[in-house]
Amino acid sequence: SHETICRYIAKGGKLVVVSVGYRLAPEHKYPAAYEDCLNATIHFMKNIEHYGVDPANVIVCGDSAGGNLAAAVSQTLAGRSDLPRLRAQILMYPGLQAVDFDLPSYQQNRGVPPLLREHSAFFALQYLNGDASNMQEVLEGSHIPPDRRVKYREWVNPD
């Protein structure tokens, strides 16, 4: 689905673009997609001279679920001393949290396709475990125990 834009970016920027075809939910539950992206990135970085790429200029990028995967790969590789450091990550409307679906961005865009609030919750559940039967609880926020909600309030809150 992203081949055309990847080719456009590669040609227009005179860049090497590696697009990972990762396994998709719900058939392949977490962490399948993450492992596919991480393994592909590690392979690329370990063989970077074969591709003629400057190791100081590697960026990971993704949109939507791919943005989540790019962020997770970036975090995992941040502590690796056996690989070149990533220069940056580019995240376009990434799915980064499933703690609170009532944050301002969800409220402001609750009726904006294709990422309706309900769709975001549904896709998060599909990614995690393939079961959307408790979607209403997730939308209401009752899927997070009160003590955890307090603990994560510092990072996930309307402010």
From TrEMBL:
InterPro entries according to UniProt: AB_hydrolase_3, AB_hydrolase_fold, GDXG_lipolytic_enzyme
Keyword field contains Hydrolase: yes
Alpha/beta hydrolase fold-3 domain location: 1-133
Record-linked Pfam families: Abhydrolase_3
Keywords: Hydrolase
Gene Ontology MF: a single term: hydrolase activity
Hydrolase as UniProt keyword: yes
Protein name: ADCL4 protein
Species per Swiss-Prot/TrEMBL record: Indicator maculatus (spotted honeyguide)
